[in-house]
Amino acid sequence: MSDVVKVISITEEAYDTKTFEFQWDEKASPGQFIMVWVPGMEEIPMSLSKTNRIKSITVKKIGKDTERLHGLGLGDSIRIRGPYGNGFDLKKNKNMLIIGGGVGTAAVIPVIKETGADTIIGARTDKDVIMDDVAGQYAKNLWIATDDGSRGFHGNVVQLMREKIQEKRYDTVLACGPEIMQYYLYKACVELGTDCQLSLERHMKCGAGVCGCCVMDEMRVCRDGPVFTKEQISRMKDFGTSKRDEAGRIIKIR
Amino acid sequence: MLETSVGKLRLERPGMVASGIMDETGQSMIRMLSSGAGAVVTKSIGSRPNPGHPNPTFTELKGGYINAMGLPNPGIELFGEEMAVAVKSGNIIGSIYGSSPEEFSTLAGKMEEYGAAAVELNLSCPHAKGYGIELGTDPAIVKAVVSAVKSSVSIPVWTKLTPNTHLIKNLASAVQEAGGDAVVAINTVKAMVISPQFGKPILSNKFGGLSGPAIRSIGVRAVFDIRTAVDIPIVGVGGISDWKDAAQYMMAGASAFQIGSAIGTKGIEVFENINRDLERFMKDYGYGSISDMVGVAHE
What we know:
The complex is a heterodimer of chains A (254) and B (299). The radius of gyration of chain A is 17 Å and the shape is globular. In chain A, β9 (118-123), α3 and β10 form a beta-alpha-beta unit. With 254 residues, chain A is an alpha/beta fold. Chain A has helices spanning 64-70, 105-115, 132-138, 157-168, 179-192, 230-234; strands at 2-6, 9-14, 17-23, 33-37, 44-51, 54-60, 77-84, 96-101, 118-123, 142-146, 153-154, 172-176, 195-199, 215-216, 219-220, 227-229, 242-244, 250-252. Chain A folds into 2 domains: 2-84, Translation factors (Elongation Factor Tu (Ef-tu), domain 3, Beta Barrel); 96-252, Nucleotide-binding domain of ferredoxin-NADP reductase (FNR) module (Rossmann fold, 3-Layer(aba) Sandwich), CATH 3.40.50. The longest helix of chain A has 14 residues, at 179-192. Chain A is built from 6 helices and 18 strands. In chain A, α4 (157-168) packs parallel to α5 (179-192). By secondary structure, chain B is an alpha/beta fold. Chain B has a single domain (4-298), classed as Aldolase class I (TIM Barrel), CATH 3.20.20. Helices cover 36% and strands 20% of the residues of chain B. Chain B has helices spanning 26-33, 76-86, 101-114, 133-136, 139-150, 168-177, 216-229, 243-252, 261-265, 270-285, 290-293, and strands at residues 4-6, 9-11, 15-17, 39-41, 58-61, 64-67, 92-96, 118-122, 157-161, 182-185, 189-192, 194-195, 200-201, 207-211, 234-237, 256-259. In chain B, the strands form 4 sheets. An 8-stranded parallel β-barrel of chain B has the order 3-4-7-8-9-10-15-16, surrounded by 7 helices. A 4-stranded antiparallel beta sheet of chain B has the order 5-6-14-11, with no helix packed on it. In chain B, α8 (243-252) links the parallel β15 and β16 (256-259). In chain B, α5 (139-150) packs parallel to α6, α6 (168-177) packs across α7 and α7 (216-229) packs parallel to α8. Chain B starts with a strand and ends in a 6-residue tail after the last helix. The A-B interface holds A 1-2, 4, 35, 37-39, 42-44, 77, 79, 81, 204-213, 215, 217-218, 220, 223, 244-249 and B 20-25, 27-28, 30-31, 43, 49-52, 54-60, 65, 67, 69, 72-75, 78, 195, 197-198, 200, 202, 204, 260-261, 263-264, 267.
């Protein structure tokens, strides 16, 4: 359940993003996450970007905790616990479209590897695109979208997704990325009648379904999610509209 | 068959959600009520919003969990909105923490106004400076707090006690002398966990509270002892995850019980499972009601 592992490889994915590999025998499925800690930082949840015996986390430097992780070198120790939550359900549908937005791309890499399904990766600019090399090795088709048009489709992943769904009639979309992206992605799926599974995020403390601080409506992101079905999301008033801070206060996000 | 009461408060089912578990928002409390719990005790609420301690605040260990959440809560004013959502669906017990009798009284008054079925005074949290255990191990302070709250509200006043003392019977007697309506025992056991690889405590607060199966026998003993000291009802809590654990607490003297950690280890189905299995046991062994079981281990 909890372990201290050593970093066995570090890959620079972009100017602000690194992948840290470690060996951990615990069984994990695509979409599950772990809680990560080293002394000098707050423990944070991270999706697994590799889910076999060799596992990895992909860390974008966004604050002091992720900066602390970026300071790790080969052979350094990390305390991890988990894996937690429900990952993506890969049995239900055959014709899938996988979408990763920003650092959320890391969480869908194991899904691409397992299914080989068509994939869209989105980012703000060309230099923010991550893991397109590994995605390209496994995905049947890979499309890139950038907000500024510096690479691939000029626009966001939801616009590109609409085009692709109309062209190829996917049964379901599997996605991870910023909530605002997933909010519009969900609305597009409702409109187009396409199923979806989305990996969501909230401030977490226990990670194990106990404390209840990561709830969206009555659903615990850590235990009932982090991957939710379209039907579950349809009943969440908090999705795309509000989140809670460490004290449990409501903060509007849109 | 599973109905019970804690003093004036009647419960259709004897299991409640313990404070701190799935009880920070109105909707999560409703979900727990519909999962087979007879009542939900809220997260402990203070006068002002509190982010709690920084992570790591929690980890699994052999036999249970250790946590030092540090009483995170949105504060009593904002919590009114969560209560308004939850109280329509069933019994909500308002857990509160303060640093003085006056602060407890004010918070209890708010909880009564919000529609709480009872208040539970947190005089036992082992990981928040200036609160909980720091007041709750002194019988004189316990008596002063309970008296003050009793004189300011008309809903039942329960007091949750700490096992981190050799005076638990004296603490329970202080509650009874002050007119308290029930004793809840036990809160978590003060504990710590060190990472050998890092040579450092894992919790940011260094110390935390141990919960889960590891503390069940400590709780059962505490309830048994308290039963010999007071006549007011007892609510048993600490490491309950199946019907046998629950039955032990009631046979030691508890009229009802609370579940915390097992909601994590067994899932929210733990209430339905215990309700079903307890009823089966009671029929098999000739207990017609929960009250028939309460305290039988003393006879």
